[in-house]
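User: My instructor asked us to take a sequence, write out its structure as tokens, and then describe one feature of it. I'm not sure where to start. Here is the sequence I was given:
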Amino acid sequence: MTENDGWRLFRGDRTARQVDFPEAPPWRQFANGTPGTRVRHRPYLIGRTEADVVSAALHLRRPLLVTGHPGTGKSSLAHAVAHELSLGPVLQWPVNSRSVLKDALYGYDAIGRLRETHLRQERGAPEPDIGTFVRLGPLGTALVPRERPRVLLVDELDKGDVDLPNDLLTVFEEGEFEIPELSRLPEAQSEVPVLTHDPEGGRVTVTRGVVRCREFPVVVITSNGERDFPPAFLRRCVRLDLPDPDEERLRDIVAAHLGEGALEGVDDLLHAFLNRRAPGELATDQLLNAVFLRKGGVNLNAEGLLDAVLHRLGGSV
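Assistant: Let's start with the prediction itself. The structure tokens for your sequence are:
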């Protein structure tokens, strides 16, 4: 093994060994292995102008539609708002081509309820509570009436069906939705405790099958600009376009995540990153990954580090 080669935990030499794993990057640390406790309170840098747009959306109780290139911190903005305003864990709805509005509102396990009913009938036990088989989705949980709003992240809405933005309009405008399986119950069962999407667990009581918010949730919708949204949807959103950070902001981001000392000896990485970012090859989180590896002893030059190690890694921090 050559000098400064100790960063190579895996060498591909088919020799079994015990290695001491180095500390993970701050953005890849998890809290005690407990579900739903990923460390999210990371530094988030945003300009005054962009922060004012967020405040406008909060005052107007309107969804915030955030656009920008990958790695500009669109998704992380929701977590920054939730942390700074003490609004609890973020409720997340990652949208894909199969996503439909009902999945975000609630789910009803009719087959599970039927199976449990048959089992109880065989034992002569009472029928199961229907609320056990109803779980509010992330949007449904965000609309539960409470004194302080929750933060809902609708991630990458542009990946969904073309009709999905319009489907969301009614819910956003009315601040409520109906669960037919509960609204059809007799009056004696007008109040039903149901499960939620809340990472902290617990149940909420739904009255007459209707969930109606008291305070409209803080809705952050992200888009990579893969397609345009309907004008009616855009009119009901406050729009924020996050710019690509310049060199000064990149230095601030590195220092905020890895400390001021991380800026020493990384000018070549910064310049190589800026030169290659224009074609859209790299995102800000990849620069952070490169700096972290450089500080951990990876003995590759800037171009080699960005190309061979990080070229196709994505995500946002």
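For the description part of your assignment, you could build on this observation: The mean pLDDT is 86. Try explaining in your own words what that tells you about the chain.
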